[in-house]
Amino acid sequence: MKFLVLLTPARGKTPDDFKPHMVREVEAVWASYVGDELREFYFSKDPQVLTLIYELPSAEAVHGTVDALPMVEAGLLDRQVVHLGPFNQIAALFTQSGA
């Protein structure tokens, strides 16, 4: 199953709050990537969003993996997890209408 994870700074957190966790966070993300769980990762600066695409067997597995990230554990990042599925609505292009 594929999941989109959006990580954003928790309200009131400053860049200085993140600095002590940066190396451990990047190491954890890299470990997920080489461990074949994390498929893609992106960072946007304005607004600050870390976008992760995981491929794991369940939402519970994704939540466990994301919750173990150092900055999430420290309460520095808020997370949103979205289960991605097929766009079945595209089938409408291939159905015949009554015409």
Tell me about this structure.
This is Superoxide dismutase. It comes from Sphingomonas dokdonensis. With 99 residues, this protein is of the alpha+beta class. The protein has one domain (2-94): 2-Layer Sandwich (Alpha-Beta Plaits), CATH 3.30.70. 30% of the residues lie in helices and 32% in strands. The protein has helices spanning 15-18, 22-34, 59-67, 70-73; strands at residues 2-9, 38-45, 48-55, 77-84. It has a four-stranded antiparallel beta sheet. Strand 2 (38-45) and strand 3 (48-55) form a beta hairpin. It is elongated. It starts with a strand and ends in a 15-residue tail after the last strand. The model has no long low-confidence stretch (mean pLDDT 93).
Summed up, what is this model?
The protein is α+β, with helices and mostly antiparallel strands. The chain has four helices and four strands, in the order E-H-H-E-E-H-H-E.
